[in-house]
User: Which sequence fits this backbone?
């Protein structure tokens, strides 16, 4: 009984927090515009703040300062709406190099990834016409959630060999493969009910894998920082990084795919 309790001890808190976040995110995605942009700014600022806190322990004001600076730069990019101003997305990474106490390379790369994710979320929602933008975001979020949920239950019910034990000791191959299967199911649903193109069936597990790599990257950063969670902001989940690590990987993959063609969704 105690083993079962330990295995599922965080399930209730994860479920309740997950439902609340999913509801808030769904409303923001549906509304789009300023509401969704505001949510992206808040999430990006918290991501950068948590990363700064892990790479500069004991300096909370410095971490919050970098988080607020990231929000300001991202908001400025949205306000100026000029492709040449995208260079501002790299400023928090560069400024932080003079403020971060350790793991400067980690900060440089991951802070930039966070800024690109915040920008990418809004660009995907606003850059396509309303049906396509909303569908694209719903697809990305749904496959990340499905991959995470399937991986969570398969990892605990099936177990088996670890995916990368030195970096993320809880991740198993069974959970990883289950996550890919969940992503294919999501892709199939979007193909059946949203008119998505057939290539969504292989793009979905590709994005899920990118999300899993984002999860592993965050686990590696936490191990180097010597912390269990990026913060204790979200009950049952830890911090914002703990919840959005997979989304960072998935959104970056979408931005890469978008350079070679359109997303496989209708409404464009």
Assistant:
């Amino acid at each position: 009984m105690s083993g079962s309790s330990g295995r599922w001890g965080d399930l209730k808190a994860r479920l309740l927090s997950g439902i609340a976040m999913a509801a808030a995110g769904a409303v923001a995605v549906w509304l789009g515009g300023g509401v969704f942009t505001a949510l992206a700014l808040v999430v990006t600022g918290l991501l950068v703040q948590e990363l700064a806190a892990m790479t500069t322990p004991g300096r909370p004001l410095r971490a919050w300062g970098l988080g607020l600076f990231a929000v300001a730069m991202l908001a400025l990019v949205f306000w100026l709406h000029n492709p040449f101003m995208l260079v501002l997305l790299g400023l928090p990474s560069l400024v932080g190099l003079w403020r971060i106490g350790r793991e400067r390379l980690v900060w440089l790369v991951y802070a930039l990834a966070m800024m690109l994710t915040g920008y990418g979320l809004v660009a995907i929602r606003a850059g396509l016409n309303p049906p396509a933008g909303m569908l694209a975001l719903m697809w990305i979020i749904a496959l990340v959630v499905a991959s995470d949920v399937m991986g969570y239950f398969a990892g605990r019910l099936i177990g088996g060999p670890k995916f990368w034990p030195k970096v993320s000791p809880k991740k198993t191959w069974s959970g990883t493969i289950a996550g890919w299967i969940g992503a294919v199911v999501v892709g199939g649903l979007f193909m059946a009910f949203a008119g998505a193109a057939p290539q969504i069936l292989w793009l979905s597990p590709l994005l899920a894998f990118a999300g899993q790599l984002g999860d592993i990257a965050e686990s590696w950063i936490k191990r180097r920082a010597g912390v269990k969670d990026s913060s204790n902001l979200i009950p049952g989940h830890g911090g914002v990084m703990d919840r959005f690590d997979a989304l960072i990987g998935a959104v970056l993959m979408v931005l890469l795919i978008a350079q070679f063609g359109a997303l496989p969704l209708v409404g464009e």
The CA atoms of residues 213 and 222 lie 14 Å apart.
